Amino acid sequence: MQLTQDKDELLKYFIARFNMATLEINDLQISVVVTAMMNGTPSRPFKMLVSNISPDNLHELPKREDKYVNVEEAFFINKGMKDQKGTESNKKKSRDEPNPQDDKGKRK
Questions:
Q1: Which whole number is the average pLDDT over 59-67?
Q2: What is the DSSP string of 27-57?
Q3: What are the extents of the domains in the chain?
Q4: How many CB atoms are located within 10 Å of the residue 40 CB?
Q5: What is the 3-class SS of 5-24, one letter each residue?
Q6: How far apart are CA 19 and CA 37, in angstroms?
Q7: Residue 94: other Cβ atoms inside 10 A
C-alpha cells in the first residue's frame, strides 16, 4: 500500500484518503496499516502517535487522529491570522511612508 500526503495537504484530508484506500483492500493486516500510515506522512509527531498504538488498541486511532488534526488546524488558522495581520500592517505602513524611489530623477 503506497499512499503519501501531498505537500500542501492537511493531515485530515490525507487520513480521509488513506481510510478510503484501506476500505478497498480485503484482509488488511493491522501492521500494514500502521506502517503505510507512518510512511505516508512527513509529520514526525503524527508518526509517533501512530507508532505508539498497539494492535489491540487500534480502535483508539481515530480519537487520537482527531486530536492531532484539531491541533494542526488550530496551528494553521493561527498562522494564517498572523500572516494576514502582518500583510495588513505592511500595507498601512507603505501608504503612510513616502517611497524614496519616487523622488529619484526629480531635480529640485
A1: 78
A2: T--HHHHHHHHHHH---HHHHHHHHT--GGG
A3: 11-91
A4: 21
A5: CCCCCCHHHHHHHHHHHHHC
A6: 10
A7: 10
Q: Which amino acid is located at 17 in the chain?
A: R
CA 47 to CA 3: how far, in whole Å? Answer: 14
18-59 tens-digit pLDDT: 989 988 889 888 788 888 888 998 888 888 887 777 666 667
d(CA 15, CA 78): 22
Does 98 have pLDDT greater than 60? no
Kindly state the cell numbers that stand for 98.
Answer: 513616502
Instruction: State residue 91's pLDDT score.
Output: 55
What one-letter code names the amino acid at 96?
D
Residue type for 87, please?
T
C-beta atoms surrounding 18 within 10 Å: 21
Does residue 92 surpass a pLDDT of 70? no
Whole-angstrom Cα distance, residue 70 to residue 64? 10
